Amino acid sequence: MSKFQRFLLKRLAISVLLTLVAVSVIFVVLRLLPGSPFEALVTSGNLNQEQIDEIRAMYGLDQSIWKQYINYLGSLLTFQFGYSILRSQPVWEVLEPRLINSLILLVPALVTTAILSSVLGMYAGWNRGSRLEKASIVSTTLLRSTPVFITAIFFIIVFAYNLEIVPALGMRSIRATPDGYLETFVSLDFLHHYLLPFTVAVLYYSGDFLLLARNGVVEKRGSEFLKLHRAKGLTEMEQLARAGRNSMLPILTYFTLRLGMIFQGLILLEVVFSWPGIGRELVLAIQQQDYPLVQAAVFIMALAVIIANLAADVLYAYFDPTVSTNGGGSA
Amino acid sequence: MSTETKPEAELYKRADALWTTVRDQFAFLRQDPMAFAGMLVVAAFVFLGLFGPYLALHDPIEHTVRGDGGSVLRLTAPSADALFGTTAYGKDVLSQFLAGARPTLIVGLFGGLGTGALGFTVGVVSGYYGGWVDELLMRLTDLTFSLPFMPMALLLLTFMTPNIWLITAIIATFLWKMPARVVRSEVLSVRERTFVRSARASGASNLRTMLYHVAPNVLPIGFLYTAYGVAWAIAAQASLAFLGFGDPTMTSWGRMLRQVFASGNMRVAWWWVLPPAIGIAAITTSVFLIGRAYEEVINPEIQTDQ
């Protein structure tokens, strides 16, 4: 087995273990919650004890906690998430469209910002000390450090309430009743609702990419290989292209990590814009104590992060020869 | 460090050194106009956090603003009666804004310090010892990375009554991973330097080597991440409060925004939205701007001559 394969195997084992631990933590936290969603039913007095027991048995809540834990592990690992208590629908049927709504908002935003901000960042880093560099750093710092819901509120006030260019809420107008994904997402009405949250997401993600790209280029500026390129007579832009290419790795890894976090949705962004995504659904489910929905949603989010982490580690080890693959891998 | 001096003289020397450091830092921040502006904002914010509740003319929650006829002034634009206008419940926005700085300051300061201290300790221990200690601690950070902060915090806050210290603790529990990783990788490079090796060779214990030889050399990056921790903690606290999981007994800027949003008055009541929104945006941005100014100096990789 080569060194790289051993590294890969170890990382994989760690990821599996992490998933198990994360899933167990979620289980424990959920069982610590007081009350149950059935309490409202019971106190309403419409059910007798027999019916309550029946419902509890249906959701497996009458079994011992260990039995429940084993069942829970089994069902999560086979992606059988059970029934949502409040929506009386299979959990996956509730989550799937929400997850897609989140991804359709955030993946294009992340890709757009990764490309635009990195290019801008490289250019800013090349012209270190210029007005452009300073302005871009200050504005991205502002956008990155301000909680996203505040940026969103400002944008809503300016563009939706005052200029009235775009609607402030939701994913489509109330009258629209599209059928299927194609009809939902390929329409002018959707685009109209999409613009504002998309823009805010692009701006929110821009900061880290810009700074990473800028630092990478600043770091490369004085290095020997660029002197060689200069001596060869390449233009400034051609030199920048080469410096930029050499600082792509951190950006690529960061992109992978961010992609994993996208499954969490931008909870606050979705809440402010009433975007029917997975983050907003999770907040609603927590407020209504809909356990099966909550645990499935948190599981998907955790799993995505673990997989992305694994991918980023492997990418790094594969592309960067200076990363040791025998130890835990130093920074 | 081994020379014996009188305790008092030593103390004076230390105080003097400390003063010089403070003055140097101040001079350093003066050079960067953005960082300097950030420092002014932070100073104003700390002042508000300490004295804001006493400056407020009215109790932010109990007092109801009434007009001439004794009627409750709901959603009125800024006027002589209420300088920043009133909320939908007839409360004084200015008083809420002044009182709301305190929880933001408490959570930001202690959440940030907790994040920094915890992360720094884990980073130093993990990097210094290496081996299974390192492996264990780093897998622990991986675990906190994979448990998404927001959902977990919301879950925890549903079965524990939110109060400001609990929120601070939750934030620090989830954020320490950031400084831990960075500090660890710094320690890895410091650990192999000659002065550390010679300290160990001359018989210094592990604890002594860590405290006196390794830790001081990674302290700057620890401070930097503590500063970032403050900004993260403020943002996290505001976000939680905005989602309705804040301390219900205290007015905070995040809670003000929640009330505007939930009552559906964002469209009209700009005077109710702007003070808390600008407050939060200004303080988080300022902390980051100061942090960045230091990062330029601390981060060895971007320290090339221009």
Key terms for this structure?
heterodimer; A: 331 residues; mainly alpha; MetI-like fold; 15 helices; 73% helix; B: MetI-like fold; transport (chain A); membrane (chain A); transmembrane helix (chain A); MetI-like (chain A); MetI-like_sf (chain A)
Detailed description of the structure:
Chain A: This is Binding-protein-dependent transporters inner membrane component. Chain A: Residues 99-312 form the ABC transmembrane type-1 domain. Chain A: It is a multi-pass membrane protein. Chain A: InterPro entries: BPD_transp_1_N, MetI-like, MetI-like_sf. Chain A: Keywords: Cell membrane, Membrane, Transmembrane, Transmembrane helix, Transport. The complex is a heterodimer of chains A (331) and B (306). Chain A is mainly α and 331 residues long. Chain A has a domain at 106-289: MetI-like fold (Orthogonal Bundle), CATH 1.10.3720. Helix content of chain A is 73%, strand content 1%. Chain A is built from 15 helices and 2 strands. Chain A has helices at 3-32, 38-43, 49-58, 65-77, 91-126, 131-145, 148-162, 180-185, 188-221, 224-232, 236-245, 248-261, 267-272, 278-287, 291-319, and strands spanning 83-84, 89-90. A two-stranded antiparallel sheet of chain A has the order 1-2. In chain A, β1 (83-84) and β2 (89-90) form a beta hairpin. In chain A, α5 (91-126) crosses α9 and α5 (91-126) runs antiparallel to α12. The longest helix of chain A is centred in the first third of the chain and has 36 residues, at 91-126. The two termini of chain A are 24 Å apart. Mean pLDDT of chain A is 79; it is low at 325-331. Chain B has 306 residues and is mainly α. Chain B has one domain (49-69, 79-303): Orthogonal Bundle (MetI-like fold). Chain B has helices spanning 7-31, 33-55, 93-129, 131-146, 149-159, 164-175, 177-191, 194-201, 206-242, 253-262, 270-298. Chain B starts with 6 loop residues before the first helix and ends in an 8-residue tail after the last helix. The mean pLDDT of chain B is 79. Chains A and B meet through α1, α6, α7, α9 and α13 of A and α4, α5, α7, α9 and α11 of B.
